[in-house]
């Protein structure tokens, strides 16, 4: 079973996030766009989605809407990765169900701490 789904268009960033989480003994899948992410969400039920808020295809707001339509019982916890100065986008994503934001740059330890906190909330 997948613990965490990492979704982001920046291949290097998503690979670094995946490696940090796997080093903490979490089972992680990685996808490069929202359409691929929805396929994983339909096939498995990860406890947490780490989402790059600057995602494209579809954008993060649209992906969050799709996840929200799944209903509360099937909705994973969501950690949004955001750049400084994106308060308006952060507010929109927050209203669509992002549980926690982490601002770039961040340490692997802070990322793992946030994911583990959300995994506890998901169970």
How many domains in all? 1
Strand content: 15-25%
Largest sheet: 5 strands, parallel
CATH superfamily caption? Response regulator
User: Under CATH, the topology is which?
Assistant: Rossmann fold
Number of DSSP strands?
A: 5
How many helix segments?
5
Report how far apart the termini are: 14 Å
What is the CA-based Rg, rounded? 13 Å
Q: What is the second-level CATH architecture?
A: 3-Layer(aba) Sandwich
**Low-pLDDT stretches:** none
Main β-sheet, spatial strand arrangement: 2-1-3-4-5
Oligomer: single chain
Keywords:
123 residues; alpha/beta; Rossmann fold; 5 helices; 5 strands
Secondary structure layout:
Blueprint: E1 4-7, H1 11-22, E2 28-31, H2 34-43, E3 48-52, H3 60-69, E4 77-82, H4 87-95, E5 100-103, H5 108-122
Helix pairs in contact: 2-3
Describe the structure.
By secondary structure, this protein is an alpha/beta fold. The protein has one domain: Response regulator (Rossmann fold), CATH 3.40.50.2300. The protein is globular and about 30 Å long. The model has no long low-confidence stretch (mean pLDDT 92).
Summarize the model shown.
The protein is built from 5 helices and 5 strands; from the N terminus they run βαβαβαβαβα.
């Amino acid at each position: 079973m997948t613990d965490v789904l990492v979704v982001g268009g920046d291949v290097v960033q998503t690979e670094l996030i995946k490696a940090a989480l796997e080093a903490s003994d979490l089972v992680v899948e990685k996808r490069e766009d929202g359409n691929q992410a929805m396929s994983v969400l339909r096939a498995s039920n990860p406890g947490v989605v780490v989402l790059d808020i600057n995602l494209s295809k579809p954008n993060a707001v649209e992906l969050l809407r799709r996840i929200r339509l799944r209903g509360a019982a099937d909705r994973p916890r969501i950690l949004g990765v955001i750049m400084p100065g994106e308060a308006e986008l952060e507010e929109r994503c927050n209203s669509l169900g992002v549980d926690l934001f982490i601002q770039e740059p961040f340490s692997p330890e802070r990322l793992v701490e946030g994911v583990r906190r959300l995994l506890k909330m998901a169970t």
